Amino acid sequence: MKKYCQLALISFVILFLELLLIRLIGTEIRIFAYFSNLILLATFVGSGIGMLSKFNFSPKVSVFLLSVIVLIVNTRLFNNITDFLSPLNENKIWFQQDTASLGNIIAGLFMTAFLFFLVLFSFIPLGRYLGNFFEDSKRIIFVYSINIVASIVGMWAFYGLSFFAISPFVGVVIAQLILFFLSDTAQHKIFMVVVIFITAAVGLGIPNNSENWIKTVWSPYQKLSLHKYPDSDSAHPNYFLNVNGATYMGLYNFSDEQRIQIEKKVKELPMPSTYNVNFADQYRLPYLMKQNIKDVLIVGAGGGNDVAAAVRMGASSVDAVEIDPQIINFGKKYYPENPYSSLKVNIVIDDGRSFFRRTSKKYDMIVMGLADSHTLSSSLTNIRLDHYLYTKESFEDVKKILKPDGLLFLSFEVLQNTKIGNKIEKNLNEVFGHKPVIFELHDTQFFGLGGVIFMANEKGDVEEKYLNKNQDLKKFIEERRMYYGNDSTTLSDNWPYLYLDGPRIPQIHLWVSIFLIAAFFAFRKIVSWQGSFRWDFFVLGAGFLLYEFQNVSKTSLLFGNTWVTSLFTITAILLFILLANIIQSKFQFPLWIAYPGLAVSFALQFLMPIEVFNSLAFNLRAIFGSLFLNLPLFFSGIIFITLLRDAEEKSSALASNLIGSAAGGLFEVFSFLWGIQSLLILALIFYLISIPLVWRRQ
Questions:
Q1: Which of 78, 375, 414, 469 could in theory staple to 452 by disulfide, Cβ–Cβ 3.0 to 4.6 A?
Q2: In what helix (H) or strand (E) does residue 457 lie, and over which residues does it extend?
Q3: 500-698 domain in CATH 1.20.1070?
Q4: What is the pLDDT of residue 333?
Q5: Sign of the torsion angle spanned by Cα atoms 309, 310, 313, 314
Q6: Mapping DSSP to helix (H, G, I), strand (E, B) and coil, where does residue 440 land?
Q7: Residues of 353-384 as b/e, b for ≥16 C-beta within 10 angstroms?
Q8: Cα Rg of the chain, angstroms
């Protein structure tokens, strides 16, 4: 019994720690927030090498290296990596500095490699520990099932920390304490106690010395830090929110009383002739365009700027959709006008795209706030939180819930030398059948961070219907008009990459892929491995992870691009694998049935579009959608557990599978080039390659 408890604990720690490090490093070193797969691959390769290595590594090695990682990220030693590698990154990162030079690029790559190997080496002892259980066990299906169940618990524990806004530094200490109890050597335990104390002191004891800092919380998505503008800053009298260390939004007081004070300040300043304080407030502007607005939908409600404006301007009903519950909590507590307490406001914690599809309400005005994502939606995808909001399919959903005379008012920060404006304009033009009215608000001081506004309606008469009736407003907008054109790739659910200028593999992904491949072959020559490498398990691992990547992306289109969706999706995947284990232990499912089942389930993925499930009620969609999307993983699970049961060197087989999963993670970059659906084809190719490899061994 003790042996199985130890197996459960190490399985728990591996997945729990994997998710913790992805969150922690991606938050403190910003480039990893957009490229978290690198940390994921480091955990896979490290665990695999641990299983293959002939040497036994003590858990104290993992405890020590975790402490080093905490020291690096919390003291911000490597924070320049993002700026140093910026010339290699065509996929836009918000607020990145341009420090392009060969020396900086080399320094950034070395720091990235150093951090990658820190994570990799911290997982080698864990892989070795886990591999011993598989190698020594005579009940391999039972052992693997314990591994799966404990992994599910580890994932839920991580998301539990996120739900309760607990710092991941606390999670690292918890993982270290579990490794402490798994150690049998008294001398090692003394060393580990000292290291754990240092980790706690560094991770939890270093205060935030930022000027006017108020508090920091960790939401299910990102690190949020609230600050107050200095009292001497007359232009910004309230609060602002940082996300992962970058300025994200302000919580502005634009009440009628405050507006009078702002107008007095503006009149005292030498403002350009194009400036008109009556129209400079981007949050108030939609209601100056269109009169008698009753039903308003705000997507990306944030701290409450748009919501306060809607309430202030007399809207009868306001649906405020925000994906991050902690941002809503900040708005409730700190927003000066407290709009979220209004009886007119209905708060919805959800992904905007999900809300579009499940609401039956029609709106006079849909305000899409600046949903500028600073992180990926999951460690198992390269999709950012806001990507699916701006696809052609999303705008089609928006059009359906607008009233016949409704108006879409979309704001976004369109930066120079990007195709963001082109993509949004092109999609709006194709969906509404008319060119949107576009203008920028970068010179409207005292009223927020500004941006670019896109306005569209069903009839395409925005200018005639709204601007021609107010010549002052028309003049204000005409002096700021923007025209981007349609010479860009259409954003679609298959290719939703808003921040990438076109179909291409970003240089940074190519360099990292080359580095990982070289590192693998270097380890193959340097490290003394036990057992023989299994290429059949390798390609099965690659196929599995590629399918899982596109599966998570597709599931978000059914249930929303939220952390809850990611949690239940990965849980469902692991439960299907567990079901395969149970069936195989009871009925001995043969490979000559499993492989055709895998082929048929893949064919269904190609033939049946995911949209067919959107017409079902939520419960039915959850049941049938999950069955449909995860059916190939059930058959691949049957194949995997059958081969693992028959393998003579089980630890080597499992290690080969983990390293193959890392290889599959590298192939995910082809979705930037060919779209997400291409990952399904690549996954199928890997599974087909496994057939002759398995046949030869059989």
A1: 414
A2: none
A3: no
A4: 93
A5: negative
A6: strand
A7: bbbbbebeeebbbbbbbbbbbbbbbbbbbbbb
A8: 27
Task: Give residue 27's identity as a one-letter amino acid code.
Answer: T
Residue type, 379: S
- Residue 626 neighbours by CB distance under 10 Å: 21
How far out from the chain centre does Cα 623 lie?
A: 24
For residue 218, give the DSSP letter: E
User: Phi-psi category of 519—alpha, beta or left, where left has phi over 0 and alpha has psi -120 to 50?
Assistant: alpha
Mapped onto helix, strand or coil, the DSSP state of residue 484 is: coil
Pairing state of beta strands 223-228 and 295-299? unpaired
Give 193-248 pLDDT, tens digit per residue. Answer: 999 999 999 887 766 666 678 888 888 888 888 888 776 666 566 788 888 777 77
Q: Are 81 and 29 in contact (CB under 8 A)?
A: yes
Prediction pTM value:
0.91
Q: Which conformational region is residue 675 in: left (phi greater than 0), alpha (psi within -120 to 50 degrees), or beta? A: left
Residue 594 has pLDDT above 70, yes or no: yes
- Angle of helix 591-607 relative to helix 677-697, nearest 10 degrees, comes to 170
Residues 6+ apart with CB under 8 A from 173: 196, 199, 200, 203, 204
Sorted by where each begins, the domain ranges of the chain are: 1-209, 223-373+392-478, 500-698
Q: Which fold has domain 223-373+392-478?
A: Rossmann fold (3.40.50)
In which band, very low, low, confident or very high, does the pLDDT at 693 lie, cut at 50, 70 and 90? very high
